[in-house]
Amino acid sequence: MNQMLQDSIDTTTDIATETAPPADTPAASPPDESPPAPSHPRFAKPQRVAFVQSAWHRDVVAECRIAFLDEIEARHILRDRVDIFEVPGSFEIPLHAQLLAKTRRYTAIVAAGLVVDGGIYRHEFVSDAVIKALMDVQLRTEVPVFSAVLTPQQFHETQAHFEFFRKHFATKGVEVATACAETLLSLERLRSQVAAGII
């Protein structure tokens, strides 16, 4: 009986010795599971963007700008080709956007702001007025204007709401950068086709 037990232990030891890697062999590193960075098309001509942001709740709106700059750079518009302008509130954005568009220096303008307080009627009036005015600027000047002006109906100045809208603005920053870059590429192609008489 003791001999059988000893034989079993010896066999187990032999198997363990055969299958275990040598002590000085480094453990295999796990495969890199991060997806490759997406490849974005490049522009034929240099682009310049104006980013107009409201100072009202600056720390929340800043998340949009930070995310926008990261994403727009990934899409081949360098940060030094984005000029930042700050205005007191969202209501002041359209006039600044119009003046910037009229300079013809910018190929796109992005607006970011947070409209809150003042009751539902003022809230809806300001948000409607800002969005309509931004659309008018783009149609009058043919400079595309993009809005990340958010108008939450249930905003309370609590830490939980501030945290939620910081994350939401970061998401909107990526979305507005994507829309901006893709529209500029589309307009670049369209204008080239018009100039060539294709369209």
UniProtKB/TrEMBL annotation:
Enzyme active site: R122 (proton donor)
Keyword list, A-Z: Riboflavin biosynthesis, Transferase
Example of a GO MF term: 6,7-dimethyl-8-ribityllumazine synthase activity
Catalytic activity: (2S)-2-hydroxy-3-oxobutyl phosphate + 5-amino-6-(D-ribitylamino)uracil = 6,7-dimethyl-8-(1-D-ribityl)lumazine + phosphate + 2 H2O + H(+)
Zinc found in the keyword field: no
Ranges annotated as biased composition (Low complexity): 7-27
Extent of Pro residues compositional bias: 28-39
Pathway: Cofactor biosynthesis; riboflavin biosynthesis; riboflavin from 2-hydroxy-3-oxobutyl phosphate and 5-amino-6-(D-ribitylamino)uracil: step 1/2
Coiled coil: none
Pfam family of the protein (one): DMRL_synthase
Region (Disordered): 1-43
Binding site for (2S)-2-hydroxy-3-oxobutyl phosphate: H161
Residues that bind 5-amino-6-(D-ribitylamino)uracil: W56, S90, F91, E92, L114, V115, V116, S147
EC number: 2.5.1.78
The protein's role, per its UniProt record: Catalyzes the formation of 6,7-dimethyl-8-ribityllumazine by condensation of 5-amino-6-(D-ribitylamino)uracil with 3,4-dihydroxy-2-butanone 4-phosphate. This is the penultimate step in the biosynthesis of riboflavin.
Protein family (similarity comment): Belongs to the DMRL synthase family.
Alphabetical list of PANTHER family matching this protein: 6,7-DIMETHYL-8-RIBITYLLUMAZINE SYNTHASE, 6,7-DIMETHYL-8-RIBITYLLUMAZINE SYNTHASE DMRL SYNTHASE LUMAZINE SYNTHASE
NCBIfam families in the record: PRK12419.1
Protein name from the UniProt record: 6,7-dimethyl-8-ribityllumazine synthase
Organism from which the protein derives: Bradyrhizobium aeschynomenes
